[in-house]
Every structure is written in C-alpha cells, then in structure tokens.
C-alpha cells in the first residue's frame, strides 16, 4: 500500500517568511553547513553543463525557472540533503540546488563538498568546482578554495545521479580550512532583490507557465488520491474483513474522497467556497474516526488548501509582483507536499495497522474447541489440559510490507 505516497518532503509551509523578509539563518554550531536550499525537480540527462543558465541566475522559494517551480528544502543536521528522499522514482538525472550565503569579510574561503554522484558548484554565475565522478556520499569529499568579496553571494549546485542513493552537502570554511558559520538563507536577501527582480511584475508568459505547472501538480496529486482509494477499496480474494477493518477502510475512503474533492475545487478557476467547506469538514470527520491528531491535521491542512486557491487570483490579477506570485505559488507547492505526507500517514500508520490486525485474524488465529473424553468416550469433567506446539505449517520469515517505510 501507499506506493505513490511513500516519499519524504521537507517543504516549508511558512512560504511568506521565506521570501524577501526572511531572517538569515546563522545558528551557532552548524559546523559551517549550508542547510537552507531551494530545489528544482530532477532534469533528464547527466551532464554537469546542462541546463545552460545566465550568469545572473538566482532562484528563491516560488521562483519559476529551468522548467520547474523552486521549492524550499532543508538539509539534515549533519548538512546532508537526501535528494533521493525528495525524488524517489527517477533512476537517474540532474537536480539543481540554490542558496544565498554571506561572506563576513573579503578573503579566500574553502568550500567542503560531498556528493552522490557527480557535482558542479557555481558562485555568482561562475563555476568554481566540478567533479564528474560515481561515488557514495560522505562529508567533505572535495575541497575548493574560492576568493570572495564581503557580502551576499549566490550558489548553484548541480548534482548528477547515476542510480541508487542521491545526496549532497556543502559547508563553508575559512582560509585555514576551519568550518565557519555564515549567514545563509534560501530566500533572496533584500540586498539582491533587484537582481532577483522581486518587485518587478510577472510577464503574461511567466504567469501562464506557473499556472500550467501548478495545474499539472494538482492533477498529479488527484491521480495519487484516486489510486489510494482503489488500493483501500480492494481486499484480497477470499479475504474475511472484520468489522474494525471495514470501518477503518470506510473512513479512509471518505478521507481520500474528501481531499480529492477539495483539491479539485482548489484547482478550478471558479471557486466554490461552500463545496470547499463541505470537503474540509468531510476530510476532518473521516480522519477523526481514526485519530484526533490526524483530524486536527486534516482540518488545518484542508483549511490551508482552500486558501491556496488565492494563487489563481494572484496570477490573474493586475500585474502581480514576483514576490507576491512566488509566495502564493510556493504555498500551493508546500500544501501539495503536506497533503502527500498526511495521506501517507493515514494510509500507512492507520489503515495498514488495521490491515495487519485483520491479517492476523485471517491467517494466524482460529477458534478451536478441545473435548476431553475417557477411554470409553465419556466427557471428563474438570480435566487439566496442557497444550504444547510440536511443529507448525507457518513459513516464518521476512516480508516486503515494510519495505522503504523507515529511513534506516
């Protein structure tokens, strides 16, 4: 179950806080790792030179460029960004990562880079490192010295995957190669607002591209929700479904139907507030039958998804600024990711647990009666009975139900 939903996405929900007005990240003890990034979906091909981008290229949360909407992600505590967790399906390809960081003074800095597999790093549109290699990720595999002026800089990282794991990390060190905690953020700092054209209006073509991209993403989620309903509705042939399992399946179907209806409303140009409210209530009520915590999450998510319809108002408005359009677009992207996470939790944690309990009853438990009689076949009252298992027909061993359900 949950093949379509078995993915991990750390997309930030507070989209507005990540845009322009975001406070730089400079937590002490980060070991110099750059942790806040925006990512572009995997591109076909394994060339470190592609795609060709202008020297002034800068991406930020909600920016549409290089054929995709850039969404915020955060690396793990040790600086590793697990790209395969973000994009589990493609067997190979190239991913683009972008961030802004500030050099506290003019000087020569050392970048420590880890990657699985090939990697290329550009700063301010200039390539400073490239390594076309096949390898597994470990920290600080490559080191490159880079002269930097004082102030904010743009970093673009391309990471090629040839199959299997897919990860990257970058940290900054001083000229003595000692890790240096620098201010860093995925959003464009105000000093680079003009370069990123945050206050310029979107062109008609850009509006169309963003709207088409988001519409395609909503359509893809709708298909996944429909597929989940099909999985939940089906039971194995010859299967006895007990009342508890039937109840959980019914609630799951109601939840997925409601979420699918809500996203269909969100994706329409003509907004039906009453229909959206009905879908929101239905999703929360269905989740409440499984867990009060899930119900609260479902209600909050459904309400936010309904507000996500505002993106069409922004894109269709009177010359929206890039800053406004980006905030609305990345909010929808975050809600799409959060919907997938919640759907995965509901299907994996609740419905699958109910399915396992039902399987135990079907395949590992049976009612039985033991009748004790004497040599003449007469019942023995109050007999003591000891039952010892001498053998079994059950083939104990591992199974694939839990495949890829845990990070480790």
Helices and strands, with pairings:
Blueprint (H helix, E strand, L loop, with lengths): L14 H4 L17 E8 L20 E2 L2 E2 L1 E4 L6 E2 H4 L6 E11 L3 E10 L2 E5 L2 E6 L10 E7 L2 E11 L5 E7 L10 E2 L7 H4 L7 H30 L9 H24 L6 H16 L3 H16 L2 H6 L6 H42 L45
Antiparallel strand pairs: 1-4, 1-6, 2-3, 5-12, 6-11, 6-13, 7-10, 7-12, 8-9, 8-11
Helix pairs in contact: 4-5, 4-9, 5-6, 5-7, 5-9, 6-7, 7-9
Q: What do the pLDDT scores average to?
A: 85
How large is the radius of gyration?
A: 27 Å
Helices and strands, in order, run as HEEEEEHEEEEEEEEHHHHHHH
Q: What's the total count of β strands?
A: 13
Q: How far is the N terminus from the C terminus?
A: 19 Å
Largest sheet, if any? 7 strands, antiparallel
Helix content: 25-40%
Report the β-strand fraction as a percent range.
Answer: 15-25%
Coarse shape: globular
Question: How would you sum up this structure, described in words?
Answer:
The chain has 408 residues and is of the alpha+beta class. It contains 9 helices and 13 strands. The strands form 3 sheets. Strands 1, 4, 6, 8, 9, 11 and 13 form a 7-stranded antiparallel β-sheet that branches.
Give descriptors for this structure.
four-stranded antiparallel β-sheet; disordered N terminus; 19% strand; 408 residues; globular; 9 helices; alpha+beta; seven-stranded antiparallel β-sheet
């Amino acid at each position: 179950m949950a093949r379509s939903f078995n993915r991990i996405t750390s997309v930030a929900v507070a989209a507005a806080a990540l845009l322009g007005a975001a406070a730089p990240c400079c937590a002490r003890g980060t070991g110099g790792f750059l942790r806040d990034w925006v990512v572009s979906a995997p591109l076909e091909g394994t060339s470190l030179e592609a795609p060709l981008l202008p020297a002034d290229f800068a991406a930020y949360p909600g920016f549409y460029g290089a054929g995709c909407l850039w969404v915020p992600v955060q690396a793990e505590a040790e600086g590793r960004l697990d790209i395969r967790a973000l994009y589990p399906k493609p067997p190979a390809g190239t991913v683009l990562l972008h961030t802004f960081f500030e050099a506290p003074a003019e000087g020569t800095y050392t970048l420590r880079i880890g990657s699985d597999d090939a990697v290329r790093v550009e700063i301010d549109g200039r390539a400073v490192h490239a390594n076309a290699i096949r390898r597994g990720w470990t920290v600080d595999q490559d080191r490159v010295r880079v002269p930097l002026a004082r102030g904010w800089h743009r970093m673009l990282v391309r990471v090629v995957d040839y199959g299997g794991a897919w990860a990257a990390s970058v940290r900054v060190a001083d000229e003595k190669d000692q890790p240096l905690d620098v201010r860093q953020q995925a959003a464009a700092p105000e000093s680079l607002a003009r370069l990123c054209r945050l206050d310029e209006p979107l062109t008609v073509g850009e509006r169309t591209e963003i709207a088409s991209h988001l519409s395609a993403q909503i359509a893809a989620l709708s298909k996944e929700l429909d597929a989940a309903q099909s999985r939940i509705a089906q039971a194995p042939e010859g299967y006895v479904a007990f009342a508890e399992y039937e109840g959980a399946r019914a609630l799951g179907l109601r939840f997925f139907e409601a979420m699918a209806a809500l996203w269909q409303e969100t994706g329409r140009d003509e907004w039906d507030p009453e229909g959206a409210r009905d879908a929101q209530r239905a999703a929360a009520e269905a989740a409440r039958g499984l867990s009060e915590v899930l119900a609260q999450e479902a209600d909050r998510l459904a309400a936010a998804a309904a507000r996500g319809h505002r993106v069409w108002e922004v894109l269709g408005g009177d010359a929206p600024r890039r800053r406004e359009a980006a905030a609305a677009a990345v909010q929808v992207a975050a809600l799409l990711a959060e919907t997938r996470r919640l759907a995965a939790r509901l299907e994996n944690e609740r419905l699958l647990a109910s399915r396992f309990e039902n399987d135990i009853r079907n395949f590992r438990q049976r009612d039985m009666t033991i009748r004790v009689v004497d040599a003449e076949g007469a019942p023995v009252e109050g007999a003591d009975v000891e039952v010892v298992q001498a053998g079994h027909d059950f083939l104990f061993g591992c199974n694939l139900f839990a495949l890829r359900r845990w990070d480790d």
